[in-house]
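Z., the sequence and structure:
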Amino acid sequence: MEIRTLGTLQTSAIGLGCMGMSFAYSGADDRRSLETIDRALERGITMFDTADIYGPETNERLVGPALASRRDDIVLATKFGSRSLEIEGRAPDGRPEYVHRACDASLERLGMDHIDLYYQHRIDPQVPIEETVGAMAELVAAGKVRHLGLSEAAPATIRRAHATHPITAVQTEYSLWSRDLEGDVLPTLRELGIGLVAYSPLGRGFLTGAFRSIDDLAEDDWRRNHPRFEGENFQRNLDLVDALNGMARDKGVTAAQLGLAWVLAQGNDIVPIPGTTRPERIDENTGALDVAITSEELARLDEIAPIGVAAGTRYPAQAMKFLNN
């Protein structure tokens, strides 16, 4: 397994996003999810990503015990501050007292004495970032947290946070159909020496070619409410998928492997965390590390998937308000 460095934190070049094991997608099965975690460990994956909102709360209870026997070998990341879009009538919660309560609750659910990478899941516009990160820094001083992160933060917020306490990583959606961060977020991270953790690097599964119509998603699947999966947007986005699949076939790899290889090729300071609940997908995803992309192929992918190529926003309107703050 290739090792990459996020700030001062070393981790596997590919991580495992665990959200879908307990949240958002249909058909999750704890037994199979645990087999998936075991397969990830076998393949050398050390970065495991969860959050208190996943379930809510059940995902941490699943993931923590599954990793307990390998605690010294793994990087466990979890998040706080986005339990609901409305908490006591406010936006995602960044109040210092809440930071401490949330961390203690996550540690109890995980069954662990520290968190390797602790993210603010969404920025609270009502609380100065210095106050939130100041409280997170107190968790580091107390030994409860090793490294700090932010998720979906704007460049100015990242700078202010980093000036308060070093930020190790910023987690943001990044894939061939979500490239907006290349404009200002990614240059800011590189200027400050902060790593990027790329979630949904396969467009919530859309870029793998697994879906040909909305009917391929279960009735209770969260993605049915995402603009990129709706109506005309779905059909327009299939054009991108078809082009990606054609290029993957010509190269003798899967579309998922090509999509992940593209993310990996964007810099050694980027770690994608594709989510899956199936052990065989771990094999496929880690196979992307063996996919070399030529400069000509990168240029072709830029043509297929330029910035802004996807039809529809990344989230529904209500959730979009809490991005890039």
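The beta strands are 3-6, 9-12, 16-17, 47-49, 75-80, 115-120, 145-151, 169-173, 195-199, 270-272. The mean pLDDT is 93.

Let me know what you think.
H.
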